[in-house]
Amino acid sequence: MEVDPSRCVVVEDSQYGVAAARAAGMRAFGFAGGLTPEGWLAGPDTVVFTEMAELPGLVARAQEVGASW
């Protein structure tokens, strides 16, 4: 898609998807509102949330605080 990974976000509900996003240099938002425990998604560069309605605000806030994308 010719987009730099640092300008991408990934919304994932599995620990492996979050790990793949991190490995690719993408910002990860871990959805813990399903079966995956919050602790499996947590990390220093991952925003974990439990309600999908939170996502737009979380992305906007990350952009405001100077995320690299």
Question: In terms of topology, how is this protein built?
Answer:
Blueprint: E1 9-12, H1 15-23, E2 27-31, H2 38-41, E3 46-49, H3 55-64
Parallel strand pairs: 1-2, 2-3
Attribute tags:
69 residues, alpha/beta, three-stranded parallel sheet, 3 helices
Number of strands: 3
Q: Uncertain regions: pLDDT < 50 for 5+ in a row?
A: none
| Tally of contiguous helical segments | 3
Quaternary structure state of the chains depicted: single chain
Summarize the amount of helix as a percent range: 25-40%
Strand order of the largest sheet: 1-2-3
Kindly estimate the percentage of residues that lie in beta strands according to DSSP.
15-25%
The main pleated sheet reads as: 3 strands, parallel
Q: Structural class given helices, strands, pairing?
A: alpha/beta
Which descriptor suits the 3D outline?
A: globular
N to C succession of SSEs: EHEHEH
Distance, first to last CA: 16 Å
Rounded average pLDDT: 88
Radius of gyration in whole Å, from Cα? 11 Å
Descriptive account of the structure:
The protein is of the alpha/beta class and 69 residues long. The protein has 3 helices and 3 strands. It has a 3-stranded parallel sheet, sandwiched between helices. Strand 1 (9-12), helix 1 and strand 2 (27-31) form a beta-alpha-beta unit. The longest helix has 10 residues, at 55-64.
Summarize the structure.
With 69 residues, the protein is of the alpha/beta class. The protein contains 3 helices and 3 strands; from the N terminus they run βαβαβα.
